Amino acid sequence: MTLLAVDFGTKRLGVAVTDSAERMALPLASFAVRSEDEGVDKIARIAQERGVREIIVGLPIGHRGGETQMSAQVRAFGEKLRVRIAVPVTFSDERFTTKLAEAPMMEAGVSAKKRRGLVDAGAASLLLLAVLDARRPS
Prior knowledge:
The protein is of the alpha/beta class. It has one domain (2-135): Nucleotidyltransferase, domain 5, CATH 3.30.420. It contains four helices and five strands; from the N terminus they run βββαβαβαα. It starts with a strand and ends with a helix.
């Protein structure tokens, strides 16, 4: 059983999973989607193939700490996932994950075109890592 994280976007989704011991967050995939339903189908397929026990969806939070218009869209996407796959779907603050995932790639000189395909999975991985860290006993 693993956890799966989704970095939601209207055009691209990034996905990361944990190892079986739920100690590491591993970027898995980033893909373009034409519709929310296509995204739900792809995530559901990955979750079923990997025996996912929980899906964590990155929730956009505004700079002042409140939810945004996009937050409602992300919550609706998460609800569709929950119904489709019948596993718990939780939400976690995704602020700055994309920028943090992109920074080392920019420093390494990775082109914008190549980054587009990698950043979303990297952001999902950072989101998942933050959730794992928060859940570890201190």
